[in-house]
Amino acid sequence: MLPVEPVETPRSQFLSELRATFLHWEQLRVVYNLVLVALTCTLVFGFRPEISGDPGFWAGAMLAAVAANFCFFLGPIADCYIRWLGYRSRVVTYGVFGVGMAFASLVTLVAAMLTINPNT
Hints:
mainly alpha
């Protein structure tokens, strides 16, 4: 008996593209986290190095990291939706990533400034 080749339907093709999109975003997650960690460490430890021994700072940082990665998930969702609408381009992916990275950096900057000068 001859092996049967699987038939690719539009649904299976879309699911395959969705998987590839999410896998690509998982690579972008590494960049996202490295940028946010570098930004936080540079700002906080550059201005208040004594805070590195504060367990409250680390607990807050871990909570913020979980929240940031939860928010990161909006990127691949938006990218998949845009692809579903018919715009299949890496420019769109990197545009969505750039907007999200800029927003996350701004939130990180504000949080770091509040940590540096809590009387503000």
